[in-house]
Specification:
The structure holds 3 protein chains of 3 kinds. Chain A has helices at 5-25, 29-54, 58-88. By secondary structure, chain A is mostly helical. In chain A, helix 1 runs antiparallel to helix 2 and helix 2 (29-54) packs antiparallel against helix 3. The longest helix of chain A is centred in the last third of the chain and has 31 residues, at 58-88. Chain B has a domain at 276-484. Chain B is built from 22 helices and 2 strands. In chain B, strands 1-2 form a two-stranded antiparallel sheet. Chain B is globular and about 70 Å long. Chain C folds into 3 domains: 1-130, no CATH class; 132-553, no CATH class; 559-632. Helix content of chain C is 73%, strand content 3%. The radius of gyration of chain C is 25 Å and the shape is globular. Classes of the chains: A mainly alpha, B mainly alpha, C mainly alpha. Chains in contact: A-B, A-C, B-C. The A-B interface holds A 9, 16, 19-20, 23, 29, 32-33, 36, 39-40, 42-43, 46-47, 49-50, 53-54, 56, 58-59, 61-62, 65-66, 69, 72-73, 76-77, 79-81, 83-84, 87-88, 93, 96-101 and B 132, 135-136, 139, 143, 146-147, 150, 153-157, 159-164, 166-167, 170-171, 173-174, 177-178, 180-182, 184-185, 188-190, 209, 235-236, 239-240, 294, 297-298, 303.
Amino acid sequence: MVVPLEHVIILSGLLFSIGVMGVLFRRNVIIIFMSIELMLNAVNLALVGFSRYHNNVDGQVFVFLVMTLAAAEVSVGLAIIVALFRNRQTVNINEMNLMKN
Amino acid sequence: MDLSLYFTRQDLWGILPEIVLLVGALIILSIELFARSQRAAMLGVGILSLVIAGGFASKNFGSSFILFQGMVTLNDYSTFFDLLYMTAGIVTMVISYNYLERKGGETRGEYFALILFATMGMMLMTRGNDLVIIFLGMELLSLSLYVLVGFLRHDVFSNESAIKYLLLGAFATGFFLFGAVLVYGTTGTTNFQHIASAITNNEILSDTLLSLGIGLLLVGFAFKVALVPFHMWSPDVYQGAPTSVTAFLCTAPKAAGFGALLKVFLVAFPALHADWQDLLWALALLTMIVGNISALVQTNVKRMLAFSSVTHAGYLCIGILVLNEMGVSAILFYLLVYSVMNLGAFGIISLLEKEEKGVNFKDYEGLASKHPWLSASLALFMLSLAGFPPTAGFVAKYTLFSSAISEGYIWLIIIAILNTLVSVYYYVRLIVNMYMRTSEETLVPFLHPLLSVVIFILAISIMFFGVLPGWLIDTVTQAARIYT
Amino acid sequence: MIGLIPFFPLLGFLINGLGGKRISERMSGIIASVVVGLSFIVAITLFGEFLKIGTPLEQTLFTWIAVGKFTVSFSYVLDSLSLVMVLVITGVGLLIHIFSIGYMKGDPGIQRYFSYLNLFTFMMLTLVMSDNFLAMFLGWEGVGLCSYLLIGFWFEDPVKAAAGKKAFIVNRIGDFGFLLAMFLIFSRFGSLKFMDVLIPQQIAQIPIEIVTAITLLLFLGATGKSAQIPLHIWLPDAMAGPTPVSALIHAATMVTAGVYLIARCGILFAASEITMSVIAVIGILTAFFAATIALTETDIKKVLAYSTISQLGFMFAAVGVGAFAAGIFHLMTHAFFKGLLFLAAGSVIHGMSGEQNMLKMGGLKQKMPTTYWTMLAGVAAISGLPLLSGFFSKDEILWNVYSSQFGGNILFGIGLFTAAMTAFYMFRLFFMTFHGDRRWSKEVSPHESPKIMTIPLIMLAVLSVVGGFIGIPESWGGHNFFHQFLQKSTQDATGYITHQYSSGLLLSENILMILSIVAAIGGLLLAYRFYVQRPDIPGKISKSLSIAYKLVSGKYFIDELYGLLFVRPLRNGSELFLKKFDISVIDGIANGSGKVMLVLGNKLRRIQTGVMQNYAAVIFLGVISIIFYLYLK
């Protein structure tokens, strides 16, 4: 059975929106991070879907790049979170507001 | 395996500057590994590799190549940006000398290596002719910047700005990627020319999704160059980051963002530019006004400059709205001048900073009588940012605004001029503090001959490009002509 | 060769500015004066050359901005109009520089002072010599900046720093007009060169509304720079700066830039009747209202400041009725006598150890004889006593206001009355300062200023006395050298103006002249009667009038008395118009817009909470609005 393109796009859009909501509403930095990963994976899903539809591999190559990026971002992000945690003993995003007007 | 199937010798020659930078970064990392105390050597290798890469890049002036089956294009446009990034990189490295130590941190090899990586990323952004390459360059840049911003590990401000930048940057990247995917999905390709031909031949899956895709791409770029309402990260990040990094952050990446955005609109979506005029108009307007008004009430010089750079992004947005040869060349000119001014201003601030002091307006009181040359340079950068003739900032504004006026955007320019006039207030405030106030204790700059020379060169070029901009205008016009 | 004129002051600026404290106090003044002197010599030489060949001298230094097919080159041009300006700037400027050496002696920031003064001279020369709007704008902004720096020169005093700020803000409003006009000219004419723009055939092709808009915007720029209603408020406050600065910038040169701008673009302005009428009316009204304020002012510099605004009003009235040459003529004579008056006032202030209040002066005639006589020359000249420079120039303006199609009886009447007031308040100043009782306290020991200050005074006094003879009116059988000299620059513009010579004017020029002589002498006599002959009687009367006056320690009631009887209503009217209007409307706009900005800024500040998720939410809102925008399309 071939999954229609629309379904893939809609699912991807939904996943993406869930990710966005996670970023907007969760307080824990780590979970915000995971939500961002969800956004990226939603993108990957759409990429694969389009790639299949167009019958070219550009999209799938793109997926690899996105995955690599996601991994790199996590490693950098976790390092920063660790540094922050050492100094502030918190992972609550609301408490990270030293700089404001 | 026959490698020539994948790339040719010409391709490799084309990316020689990137290769040089990569090798330079690896050498620095090796020095860091084996001889950690050799900071001067790391700095030297960093600057040297930028200079060599710049030398290779500038050889491309006047010719144009299409490399890697259309993934990368090399021409005057990209070369102009290459050299801009490298200049910014060199200046950043010089002003970083001993800076982190003064802030209680430590200059590690990674610092220089990351600047080189960031430069490579930016080069890919304006050389790229394919959404994938643009994305790759943008991420290479962003990841390097996240680390650089948080480089003062013990400093809570630096930490905080890094996490904010990282989370918001990744968030915006999500939108950008989704946009890229939608463009790919609706046109079936990521190559700019193919996208453009798909649009003109009307072989598009869905107009709605394509528009949405372009809109989301725009969000990604708008975040990178800090257009309102995607600008909110910039003041916090600029303030918290080490000032030497802020100098880099607010110049070269902004140029790269505008360069890539321009290229996308010029090459991939020229046919659709008209549909986006109203939005760009609104973005320009909003960015100018919000940036300006916010800058008025700042007490921290770095934050003021952050909002000022938001305002400048608003002016630059006018150029994207115009998008003819005159407009594009005006943007290129503006970007270079803007970079020089901000590198100079942040450079001087970084020299004056000491622990908690040196970033507030009040700290600058009475500086002029103690350090006339430094104050004169800073005053010059401020006047140029404010657009006073005969500084380069004036010529930049003049060319940009007149390109918009000749396209009939009179109301936008009226507002832009009003904004320019208002902006004088906060720039001159710093000058007033330096020249017209006295204070018991003034800041003591860290002055090293190398630093003085660099600041001096930046100041001189602001005057030079203000009085004799002819050569630079010719260059940018030639670069702009490639795509217009 | 032409380039040398602005080059020398620039050089002086660099030497004094970069040398700083390494240059001795004496040396910095000498350097600054010598460079201006050199410029003056070059200007004189070129003047001779110009008389010989009769065509404008030009020198293109380099191409400044070339975008697409539009080029703006940095070139200097010397035609008769800019030559007059250059001679005034370098000539009067030189004297003021020399005067400054004495006046600023011992000031710790003297090198800075002279470097600003030289920079100002350079910018002013660029303003008047450039051959296009853009380079003119460079000078325009430059003089504003220098003026700002010099007003706030004694920055320790917060009031003085605030005065600088006010000047700055008001000038920005004017700059807005200039810039916008410039962009409009650029988009309509495709060039910013005077030679390309100021061509009657070219202008005729532009819709009249656009021409009116451009000229009104330029005039807005001029009102800001030249302190005309409603942007005049900064000039009285600008008196906070050192007195020679007031003489150079706020009397002789910078404030006249607006008049120069209009005279330079005369052809453009004359094409729009609306603009011309607006200029004439604003000019006369400014002259009148500023004069009424000057009537009761007791700060010697403030009187001169209001007098400057008033005289500038006359110049605007002149250019507004199309008498460009007359306007420039008055500009020149005004530079002589107002420069002189300010320097003389500076000499008085210097001798009185910084006292500026005329109520605490009086009887200085014996103490400062040179200042006394030179100031008398200046006062007589500005009052328009016959055969002095102000007489010829003011008279010409009044005649033109009367006879031009943009002028008329009413404007002339107001002008004549203002001339009488001018004579009155100037002689009031003179008598209050030099005659009557010695009202200074014991600690002050007034003394004559040193030679380095009095010699410039004497030279300016000579110029104020004889300077008018280059413009003897034709009705006297002379052939008005000045008019003929300026003809090349202004004749095209005056072609638009039809003087109603033939249509049976009631009064001839000579009769008008007699009227203005009567006005001047009337004002003089009135002041003499009030301030020299009978200062005691009004004092007694006023004592019996009101308790309030008794509170004022009984030294100089005359002001209050005649204020009550005669000036008070007038002044109240003007105050209502000028000061209240200022405070509520102009200051309101200037400060109010500033305040609104700050309030908005503080509002925006609240959005910047520092919490990352709020930022993300704003980004998300941005995304939603873009989607909404796409949906609307």
